[in-house]
Design a protein that fits this description.
With 330 residues, this protein is an alpha/beta fold. Helix content is 35%, strand content 15%.
């Protein structure tokens, strides 16, 4: 079992990251290292089932709390949370452990970072496995403008853009915040149909949080005692650093232009696995349609009836899908 109260602290790329490590030493096995990247509002603890499983079958595995999260460094200013910084942190992490290349697995924001690693630090990447958020084409306009035009000013990512606007709401009662976010489909509407974790289609998640538990839908993802890991981490970090990741989406889109060939990103020629979740309202499976044209070789696995927090809600199926893919290509 991984001790999530006692990380290693690694200095990398000008910041310090708490890192949770398991399995054999990197130099003592011919199996590839696997690096797990959490999303928002998560921490390395979200990968507990994967760290246990893959370490037990002989892989060296690591999962950091990334910059701005938990006990990591929290540099001031959104300019310190660009994709260049986030990918540089991971290259430095590999340097620290003497790893030339690794398999990267990412969920949610971790998947957004994951799919950019072949462009930013491609020589360090053996393969990519993304959960819920796919590799996407370069958008014709910046994504914040797209969200604002299609979903309105109340869409949560649009609301996150103003520093200081959402932090007080999210930090007011951390237990309620995590009971709100960390939900899975369930409950139903009396007709036997499983409900989404969030029924609202506008993705105005901040207003939904404020509406109270009766409005949320779904059911709690984990026992409340496990929420303590999240509550403790965000008591330490707050939400400003994590929200700065969102506040660089337009800047990251602009920076991505450096990799374009014509108007397209080059094909990722590394083994790629995409795991979708049928009941994910924010990141529906159709976002991954056509991804086979963007990377090769490509594998897709669809989780039926699963919500957004897929590696926790369906840990066994996710572990088996990733392990099967690794055995095929590495």
């Amino acid at each position: 079992m991984v001790d999530f109260t006692n990380p290693e602290f690694v200095e990398t790329n000008g910041v310090t990251l708490p890192v949770y490590r398991a399995g054999p030493d990197f130099s003592e096995t011919d199996k590839p290292a696997i690096v797990f990247l959490h999303g928002f509002p998560e921490i390395a603890y979200s990968w507990r089932a994967q760290l246990e499983y893959f370490s037990e079958v002989g892989y060296p595995v690591i999962a950091p709390d990334q910059r701005g999260y938990g006990r990591s460094s929290k540099p001031q200013g959104k300019e310190n949370y660009t994709m260049k910084h986030l990918s540089g942190d991971l290259a430095g992490l590999l340097d620290h452990y003497g790893i030339e290349k690794a398999i990267f697995v990412g969920h949610d924001w971790g998947a957004i970072v994951l799919w950019q690693l072949p462009f930013y630090i491609g020589e360090r990447v053996m393969g990519c496995a993304g959960l819920n958020v796919p590799l996407m084409r370069h958008f014709p306009i910046d994504p914040i403008t797209i969200f604002r035009e299609r979903l309105g000013e109340q869409m949560y990512i649009v609301r996150f853009q103003e520093e200081g606007a959402c932090e007080p709401i999210l930090e007011k009662d951390l237990r309620e915040t995590f009971k709100f976010f960390l939900r899975k489909p369930g409950g139903g509407n009396g007709g036997g149909k499983t409900s989404f974790a969030f029924e609202v289609e506008s993705l105005d998640l901040i207003s939904l949080l404020q509406a109270g538990e009766d409005a949320w839908g779904g059911e709690l993802l984990m026992p409340e005692k496990e929420l303590e890991y999240y509550i403790e981490a965000y008591t330490e970090s707050g939400f400003t650093g994590p929200l700065h990741w969102y506040r660089n989406m337009a800047e990251n889109w602009e920076a991505q232009k450096q990799f374009l060939v014509g108007r397209q990103l080059p094909k990722v020629e590394k083994p790629c696995l995409m795991i979708t979740a049928e009941m994910d309202r924010a990141c529906p499976p159709n976002l991954a349609d056509g991804m086979e044209d963007l990377c090769e070789p490509y594998t897709r696995h669809d989780l039926k009836g699963c919500g957004h927090w897929s590696q926790q809600e369906r840990s066994e199926e996710v572990n088996e899908a990733i392990h099967s893919w690794i055995r095929e290509y590495f």
